[in-house]
Hints:
By secondary structure, the chain is α+β, with helices and mostly antiparallel strands. The chain contains four helices and nine strands, in the order ββααβββββββαα.
Amino acid sequence: MSEDPGGAAPRSEEPDEEPAGAVCAFCGSSEDVGEQERLGVRVRVCAGCTARFGRERRAQRAAGPPERPVGLPPTLGQQSSEVLRHVARMAERAAARPYAEEECPRCRAPVHVYRAVDGEGRVVLAKDAVLAESVPAATRWRVRDGRAEPSPGEPEQVGARVLHEVVCGAAPEPGNPRLQRAWRANRDAAGAAAPGPGDPGAGVHP
């Protein structure tokens, strides 16, 4: 190492170990402060904070992965598991039902298909029940022991089911006001046009 012509002391290429007055960026201490690099940034940290951070990291590794904090949305895996459980529950409920839910091929309305009392025939009922006293006795049905049967004239019957063919949106409009509402709902849902002049039900307006 050579001296310069002016006799000045040679300049060292190494930086000072620690500039005077350095303080820890975390606790503000000025004792035993050094620099550490975190994500490409040099940060001044004292020896006490360095030891504390080390203890915390060791404790976290020993405790295992943290639980999902309350309030955060579920992970994709948790969502998928919940969806699969929901699908399984719905499949169990569908299997336990005494009916099959299908779609009317004429008006596309949902219908419930039950077994007849003889256990062999199919009875296609409208999905929604009605107040028994609001429809003619001859159109009232009920479900008992998982099978559909007619129930005309039962005085204590509160709710009743009706055959879908009575309120099918592709069939003629019924005369009963309550059945008319169900028929119109099926017709409108299917996008069917109103009856023409030559059709049955002409002259009966919604």
